Amino acid sequence: MSGILFTGGRFLDVRAGVVKDGIDLLVEGDRIKEVSDTPIKAATARRVDLGGKVLMPGLIDAHIHIFLSEVNIQHLAGVPLTLLAAKAGVMMRNMLMRGFTTVRDTGGGDWGMQVASETGLVEGPRLFISGQAISQTGGHGDFRNRTQTEIECGCCSGLTYTTRIVDGVPEMIRAVRDELRKGANQIKIMVSGGVASQSDPLDSLQFRLDEIAAATEEARNWGSYVCAHAYSAEAVKRAVGQGVRSIEHGNLIDQEAVDLMKEKGAFLVPTLVAYDAMRRRGRDFGLTEYSLAKNEVVLEAGLRSLDMCRKTGVPICYGSDLLGQLQDDQSREFLIRSEVMPATEVIQSATVVNARLLQREGQLGELVPGAYADLLVVDGDPTRDLSLFQDQGAHIPAIMKAGRFYKNALGA
């Protein structure tokens, strides 16, 4: 096998948080074959001279929604699934061109789009799916208007395709088993109110403890896990106490909730850029005044919750959670987090920490032998300048996923 040999550049060791010189890296097939601080001998390999640029792992975003193509989710009511899929394909390619070679969809993304990405029908990141997010009646995933009584068919509406409504333990067990049957890599449940939903208070507590426990038990039985949309400290404690593995958002947590997360080994997936983008641009795309008011509450608390978790030792992942037209702000999360985190830790959150969350340590998020050949060539040192991830990938001249170049402006 011939392979591709990267040489003549600098190497970002994300675990150590340092950039090293004199490292060669050999790719064979879709994996990294060898990494060495001495020249690698591979006579038949295609040689790529990095010219002093930095070689680093592809980025991972652990909270995206490829099918939520509108900022005001209610606007998806009249969108057919064919159009939804077409828009998702464009979103996924744009994510890949920003350097995100893996993403975790936390509600809506399905097996079909996953296969489309894996087989190259859609040029996009490697996709981990939750299937339909699970909500209680009146919860964060119940998008019916107050005048509606019935849930419209989920097979033909963009609004209802991304979530499902369940009540009670038997329904929860059935829903989790069904999403896993359909190919979900992880299960997403809603345990508190949210910004985008129009009927639930932000601090509402959703699902009973036995319903949450039923979800986590079924996921564990499958070798999977549950992630939970949660804002308030009480919602977080209820979820983590019943075995939820990752808390999505968590803006309104307190120290007691953080300590419990640390004790249970739970992850935090902050999505600070979502609130920043909705404040700046949400009204332009139809976000309601009700949602904008709730957005202000969580926006002001975001950095505080992240700082609390960091100081306590809770693993912090990288997520964005941007809706529709706001997706182009995906990499701005790096800059927002840099207000309370060193650049190396922010990069780790989008690489090795997210790989651990996805249960793919040693396969994703770092450049080590045996890992997938997901890598970026960056025109500068991102540990010193996180702005290199901005401008829609303009400072990333080469992007490889699973051993294939999707962008290569190196002239090699």
Overview in brief:
With 412 residues, the protein is an alpha/beta fold.
Proportion of helical residues: 25-40%
Topology, number of strands: 19
CATH architect. name of the largest domain: Alpha-Beta Barrel
CATH superfamily of the largest domain: Metal-dependent hydrolases
Strand content: 15-25%
**What is the level 1 CATH name of the largest domain?**
Alpha Beta
Q: Tell me the major beta sheet.
A: 6 strands, mixed
Distance between the termini: 19 Å
Our count of helices gives 12
Major sheet: arrangement of strands: 3-2-7-17-18-19
InterPro entries: Amidohydro-rel, Metal-dep_hydrolase_composite, Metal_Hydrolase, Metallo-dep_Hydrolase, OTAase-like
Pfam family, one: Amidohydro_1
Protein name: Peptidase M38
GO molecular function, one term: hydrolase activity, acting on carbon-nitrogen (but not peptide) bonds
What does this structure look like?
By secondary structure, this protein is of the alpha/beta class. The chain has two domains: 4-58 and 366-408, Urease, subunit C, domain 1 (Roll), CATH 2.30.40; 59-330, TIM Barrel (Alpha-Beta Barrel), CATH 3.20.20.140. It is built from twelve helices and 19 strands. The strands form five sheets. The chain has a six-stranded mixed beta sheet with strand order 3-2-7-17-18-19, with no helix packed on it. Strand 8 (59-64), helix 1 (81-97) and strand 9 (100-105) form a beta-alpha-beta unit. Helix 4 (169-181) runs parallel beside helix 5 (209-221). The longest helix has 24 residues, at 289-312. The two termini are 19 Å apart. The model has no long low-confidence stretch (mean pLDDT 93).
